[in-house]
Amino acid sequence: MPQTSPTPPATRQVEKIREIIVGRQFHAVEQRLTRLEENLRPMPVTGADTASPSTHAQQEQALEIRRLRQSIEVERNRQAEETKRLAQQIQHIARSRREAAEETQRAIQAQLGPWFQEWQGRLQQHLQQRESHLIAEFRAELDHMRQWMRAELKQHPDENSEQLRIALEQFATAARAVAQHLPTTRRP
To answer: How many Å apart are CA 64 and CA 59, to the nearest integer?
Structure first.
């Protein structure tokens, strides 16, 4: 008698697991097969279903084309709306930048305006002081020259007195003309 070796307990457990798994898979396959059979049962024939297979394919194709056109139209509308939204956003940003630039310009003018007026006032004051100083120096120089000439005339009254008198008259006329154009200021 051939001796059969008893199956080890681990092998039995593997067999049981295999039966459970195969059984479940088999059950799932049976359910799928049942559903497919139900879908394959002949349907009642109507007038629309008697059309040729090519007509049915054309109808399917036309339906698919309609769906694609609708999808394209929806996408076009979405893109148009997005473009419109972006255009509005760009206009808003441009308007904001323009307003910001105007605001910045006003702020700069507000800050620089008083400073510039103050600077202009100080420059005007400096120029007036400089002009007064130059006029005073010019008058002082004229006075100095007049005194020198009088002193010279007293020391040498007869030498070239006529020529000297004519030169002094010309000099005095020129000095008066210059003095008339200068504003009158108090002498220091």
So the answer is: 8
Q: pLDDT (tens digit, 9 = 90+) per residue, 114-166? A: 888 999 999 999 999 998 898 888 888 888 888 887 787 777 766 666 777 78
- From 147, 134, 112, 149, select the one nearest 182 (Cα to Cα): 134
Phi, psi of 41 (to 5 degrees): -60, 140
Q: Return the axis-axis angle of helices 53-155 and 161-181, rounded to nearest 10°.
A: 150
Q: Which two tokens stand for residue 49?
A: 């279903």
Q: Cα-flanking dihedrals φ and ψ of residue 51, to 5°? A: -65, 155
